[in-house]
Design brief:
The protein has 7 helices and 6 strands, in the order αβαββαβααβααβ. It is α/β, with parallel strands linked by helices and 221 residues long.
Length: 221
C-alpha cells in the first residue's frame, strides 16, 4: 500500500460502514501511512507471502496497484489473497505487463554496461517479474479464481527533464535502478544517463516514458 494514498481513496469509497486495511512489507512506508489512518482505515506491516495475521475469508476485495510485478514467485501470494477473501470476493490487479523493452530501459542498460558502472552486476533476475495475459490467466485459475477480465493498456508519463525521470526511477524501494552501485558512483551515473536520455527528449526538455500495464479482475470461486 506504500504511503496509503490509494487505500485512503478506497476508504472514502466504502464509507463509514466499510473497512480498509493497507499492508506493506516496509515499516517506513507503514509509519508514513499511519498518518492517514481513521476508524475505517488501518495499516499494518505484512508480506504478500505471509498474510497469516489476517483471518480467513475476512475481506470482500483485495486490490494490488503496482505490486504484482515486484513479486518473484506469484502463486503463493495469489493463494493468500484467495484465502483472505470471502467466496465470491473480488481481486483487482494493476501491474506492469511483460513486453518488449522500452527505449528508456535500453538506454539505462547501455549506460550501466559501460565502465566503471559495469564492474557492479545488476540482479540477474532483473528488477521486475512481469507476466503476460496468458500467464496471468493460468496463475489466477490455479489459485482458485475465475477470471472476469484482463486487458493490457499502453500508458505514457511525462517528466520535465531527463534528470527528473532518473530520480523518479530511483525512488522505488524495490526497483531502484542504481541500488547496486556504490553510493559514491551514483551521481556520475545519473549524469551519464541524463545525457543519454537527452537525445530522446522534446525540444523543451520534456521526456516521455511509455509502459505497458495489465489490469486484471477475478472472483474467488
Amino acid at each position: 500500500c506504500g504511503t496509503g494514498l490509494l487505500a485512503e481513496h478506497i476508504a472514502d469509497l466504502v464509507g463509514p460502514s466499510g473497512a480498509v486495511l493497507g499492508v506493506d512489507p516496509l515499516p517506513l512506508r507503514i509509519a508514513l501511512a499511519q498518518a492517514k489512518a481513521r476508524p475505517n482505515l488501518q495499516f499494518k506491516v505484512a508480506d504478500a507471502y505471509d498474510l497469516s495475521s489476517i483471518a480467513t475469508a475476512a475481506f470482500d476485495v483485495v486490490c494490488l496497484n503496482a505490486v504484482f510485478h515486484w513479486l518473484p514467485e506469484k502463486s503463493g501470494p495469489l493463494r493468500e489473497f484467495a484465502r483472505v477473501l470471502k467466496a465470491g470476493g473480488r481481486l483487482g490487479i494493476s501491474s506492469g505487463a511483460k513486453g518488449p523493452r522500452t527505449r528508456y530501459q535500453e538506454v539505462i542498460s547501455e549506460v550501466l554496461a559501460r565502465p566503471p558502472f559495469n564492474a557492479y552486476a545488476r540482479p540477474p533476475e532483473g528488477l521486475t517479474h512481469r507476466v503476460d495475459e496468458s500467464e496471468m490467466r493460468q496463475l489466477l485459475a490455479a489459485a482458485g479464481f475465475e477470471v472476469k477480465s484482463i486487458e493490457t493498456l499502453e500508458s505514457v508519463r511525462d517528466f520535465p527533464s531527463p534528470q527528473l525521470l532518473v530520480r523518479y526511477s530511483e525512488a522505488s524501494s524495490f526497483g531502484n535502478i542504481l541500488a547496486h552501485l556504490p553510493v559514491e558512483l551514483r551521481p556520475a551515473d545519473r549524469e551519464v544517463i541524463g545525457r543519454a536520455l537527452a537525445a530522446l527528449a522534446a525540444p523543451d526538455g520534456t521526456i516521455f516514458q511509455s509502459s505497458r500495464r495489465m489490469v486484471a479482475v477475478a472472483v474467488r470461486r
